[in-house]
Design brief:
By secondary structure, this protein is mainly alpha-helical. The protein is about 55% helix and about 0% strand. The chain has helices at about 20-35, 40-55, 60-75, 80-90.
Length: about 100
């Protein structure tokens, strides 16, 4: 049996997500670390770097999670920029055709 991840949760053990994608990236990162795709401390280091690049705005915290996860997965060869771009395109809602003369 492998040891549990050393993840520090808030004192009240309630995570706060302002949007569904934030909960998803949190769950994906934790699941990938738990599956052995990378060590938790590797992700923490990358997250620290991404947060350091930011402006300190807490509203961007999960954007840093996403950027750190993308970089770590790319560095490990588990995600390519082409594959990521394809998935992003597939998840975007379809664009509505523009009517001639519409603003």
């Amino acid at each position: 049996m492998k040891p549990p991840l050393d993840i520090k949760l808030p004192d009240n053990h309630e995570m706060r997500f302002d949007a569904p994608w934030q909960a998803r990236i949190f769950a994906v990162v934790v699941s990938l670390a738990d599956a052995g795709c990378f060590r938790w401390d590797e992700f923490q280091q990358g997250l620290s770097v991404e947060i350091g690049r930011g402006e300190g705005d807490p509203r961007h915290y999960y954007k840093h999670w996403l950027a750190a996860a993308e970089k770590l997965l790319a560095d490990k060869g588990l995600l390519t920029s082409d594959r990521l771009a394809g998935r992003i395109a597939a998840l975007r809602p379809p664009q509505k055709p523009m009517r001639p003369g519409a603003p």
